[in-house]
Specification:
Shape: elongated
Strand content: over 45%
Radius of gyration: 28 Å
Distance between the termini: 95 Å
Number of strands: 23
Strand order of the largest sheet: 12-11-14-15-16-10-13
Largest sheet: 7 strands, mixed
Structural class: mainly beta
Helix content: under 10%
Order of helices and strands: EEEHEEEEEEEEEEEEEEEEEEEE
Length: 300
């Protein structure tokens, strides 16, 4: 049996800089803009609830959290020590609107954790209306949002010690993001901050990640014949020690273009043969067990 008194509607909430866990005292859902004092501005930089969040940008609230409701707890993130009294209504509310809950995605469900962060994403390369953006920890889904053409707040659920969050992200780790379009998953890359509990992050843009090559290769030089520069492009499926050298027709080494450990991916280098005579040359690439030689023609 629980007994108590309703929170006084004119109660003053004293908030300290950082995260403050408070409730909303009124009976009916009220939009964030209407619930907060008019002069509050962005002194409250963000609000976090279960699986939803909002951030204040130039006085405008963005994110999936649009309303404050009684019986729910909210983390108010403030830029300094402030106090406030909420606005709201308990009955006879004109223009009453209901808060909108984010839709859920079948087959990509995730559990609500007591530890969570939100990544507010402004733009995504080649994103289409209706696409889903998923956050992952390795191959485990830890958040999802559907793209609506505006800034979204992509959640990332953290490990909180419970069995159902044991594979979720840990503090200091970086989540990975993917687009789900139909049955296709597209990897995204960008400047993604490491996870910390109860944090709101701004991510200005994400781009589609280029898939790693499956094999070693040395592409045909372009242009070839050339005068005096040509581009040499190659692919590495794994991080490797790469040696890229140029020899003359007599087999003498005349230029060492690359001799270093290089990350997996696609690479290119320009050879400037301005100081070399016209004729036939050979470029040789060595990476692990891969060896490839290509004929070049310098025409001046």
């Amino acid at each position: 049996l629980l007994m108590g008194e309703p929170t006084p509607r004119d109660a003053v909430y004293v908030l300290v800089e950082g995260a403050n866990l408070i409730s909303y005292p009124y009976r009916y859902p009220t939009s964030i803009e209407d619930a907060l004092p008019e002069d509050i501005g962005c002194d409250i930089s963000g609000i976090i609830c279960e699986g939803v969040a909002a951030t204040c940008m130039n006085g405008v609230w963005m994110g999936s959290l649009s309303h404050l409701e009684g019986s729910k707890g909210y983390w108010f993130i403030t830029t300094g020590d402030i106090s406030l009294t909420f606005n709201g209504c308990d009955e006879n509310c004109d223009g009453l609107t209901r808060s909108i809950k984010p839709t859920k995605l079948e087959d990509y469900e995730y559990k609500q954790s007591t530890k969570q962060a939100f990544y507010f994403i402004e733009s995504i390369e080649n994103i289409e209306m209706g696409d889903w953006i998923l956050s992952y920890n390795d191959d485990v889904v830890i958040g999802a949002r559907q793209w609506t053409g505006d800034i979204i707040d992509l959640p990332a659920m953290g490990s909180d010690g419970s069995d159902y969050t044991k594979d979720y992200i840990e503090v200091g780790e970086v989540p990975s993001f993917k687009i789900l379009r139909g049955d296709e998953l597209i990897n995204l890359e960008g400047d993604i901050p490491a996870f910390e509990n109860n944090q709101l992050y701004m991510v200005s843009s994400l781009t589609e990640a280029v898939a790693l090559p499956e094999t070693f290769s040395l592409d045909r030089a372009y242009p070839n014949p050339f005068n005096p520069t040509t581009r040499l492009s190659f692919a590495l499926p794994v991080t490797s020690n790469v040696l890229l050298e140029v020899y003359d027709i007599n087999g003498r080494l005349i230029n060492e273009l690359i001799k270093s450990n290089m990350d997996a991916g696609y690479h290119s280098v320009i050879w400037n043969a301005d100081n070399n005579a016209s004729g036939v040359y050979f470029v040789k690439m060595v990476a692990g067990d891969f060896v490839n030689t290509q004929k070049l023609m310098l025409v001046k």
